[in-house]
């Protein structure tokens, strides 16, 4: 039987190690000897990875400007910025993580806006016999069996907070709570299910669409949890006009098409 806490720690260490090469240059100078005018640094929620990578690639092709992006749980990134991490743009998966920085005067308030929305879903491995799971106590209990439900930590990770709110609202928390395997970001939860380490997971629609090894077996009603909103803002560190230009690009038609293709709702 898998020790999920040990697995989460090991997975997180491996994830950090793979990001280290990309993140380390941001602390000093952009990679490749480029000037600051030709590189911008973003901290973004893990659920944005596929879409934001594609948007950044499109922006580079259009402008020649590189974007160095670090992905993790939103509150973890907010606390890194509080500790002095050199992000110029923060794109969160929830309002509280952005508010955390706003309360500490670490963003530029006039630049803040809500960029995207998302949907909360229940997933299973593609190989699972499950096809549809009714969001009732009996159906969820039968689907879980003796297995685990992977999702973000309900105390600190946005997807986990949305999951807890939805399960509470639907009267399912008591059924699900003993089976949770909590992770430090939504992509880690997605990987548990994709690798068949957990028979169920609660993630965003966009995560499920990005991973061919999982399938959606239920969609949580929007009324069962607070709106899933992705606010974005320049940080107090952003001094040049490069980050502002990138924010404007994210609101434009080319980026909107990328986000919509990935399953996001565009709010601007």
Keywords:
268 residues; alpha/beta; D-Maltodextrin-Binding Protein, domain 2; 2 domains; six-stranded mixed β-sheet; five-stranded mixed β-sheet; 11 helices; 11 strands; 41% helix; 21% strand; globular; disordered N terminus
Describe this structure in words.
The chain has 268 residues and is of the alpha/beta class. It folds into two domains: 14-25 and 35-117 and 228-266, Periplasmic binding protein-like II (D-Maltodextrin-Binding Protein, domain 2); 120-224, D-Maltodextrin-Binding Protein, domain 2 (3-Layer(aba) Sandwich). 41% of the residues lie in helices and 21% in strands. The strands form two sheets. The chain has a six-stranded mixed sheet with strand order 2-1-3-10-4-11. Strands 7-6-8-5-9 form a five-stranded mixed sheet, with helices on both faces. Strand 1, helix 2 (49-63) and strand 2 form a beta-alpha-beta unit. Helix 3 packs parallel to helix 4. The longest helix is centred in the N-terminal third of the chain and has 20 residues, at 4-23. The N and C termini lie far apart (46 Å). The relative contact order is 0.20. The model is unreliable at 1-36 (pLDDT under 50).
Helix-strand pattern: HEHEHEHEEHEHHEHEHEEHHE
- The CATH superfamily of the largest domain bears the name Periplasmic binding protein-like II
Instruction: Estimate what percentage of residues fall within beta strands.
Output: 15-25%
> Counting H and I runs of at least 4 residues, what is the number of helices?
11
Radius of gyration: 19 Å
CATH fold annotation of the largest domain: D-Maltodextrin-Binding Protein, domain 2
Shape: globular
Main β-sheet: number of strands, strand sense, barrel status?
A: 6 strands, mixed
Assigned CATH architecture of the largest domain: 3-Layer(aba) Sandwich
Low-confidence stretches: 1-36
Counted beta strands: 11
Would you state the CATH class of the largest domain? Answer: Alpha Beta
Total domain units: 2
